[in-house]
Amino acid sequence: MSTINWNKVIEFAWRIFVFIVAVAIIVIVSTNWNRWDGAEGFHSGVKRFGSKFNFGDHAAIGLQLGKSRQHEVALRIEHFSNAGIEHPNPGENFLQLRYSHKF
Predict the structure, then answer these.
(1) Alpha helix locations (H) across 1-103?
(2) Which has the least CB within 10 A, 28, 59, 64, 103?
């Protein structure tokens, strides 16, 4: 019975793959500020936010692949809300699987 040399596997993975970890917080000023259902606020078509100032939290993990690191695959989680500075504040959450290719 053969055993797996995990040190060699990890060493190989670090040579072939580049692991990506990203975290960001952004501020969004909405220009789509108008009346909707009789109340002012930004609306996404389904939800209404009470402020034109919103914030986004993003976190991602992924890999760069290929000889020239031309492929990238990442799993990203995002949350948008106005941080409770105005009401309503329904928030929006997104889960994305992203692929990109560098030419």
Answers:
(1) 6-16
(2) 103
Per-residue pLDDT band for 26 (boundaries 50, 70, 90) equals: confident
Q: Please state the pTM of the whole predicted model.
A: 0.61
Q: Distances from the Cα of 55 to the Cαs of 22, 41, 44, 79, in angstroms?
A: 17, 15, 14, 8
**Residue bearing tokens 């990109």:** 100
In the predicted structure, residue 19 carries a pLDDT above the cut 90: no
Give the model's confidence band at 36: pLDDT under 50 very low, under 70 low, under 90 confident, else very high.
very low
50, β-bridge pairs: none
CA distance 11 to 72: 20
d(CA 61, CA 94): 15
Alpha-carbon gap, residue 59 to 80, rounded angstroms:
12
Q: For the chain, where are the E strands, in sequence order? A: 18-29, 33-36, 39-43, 48-49, 53-65, 71-81, 92-101
In this structure, what token pair is assigned to residue 91? 């928030």
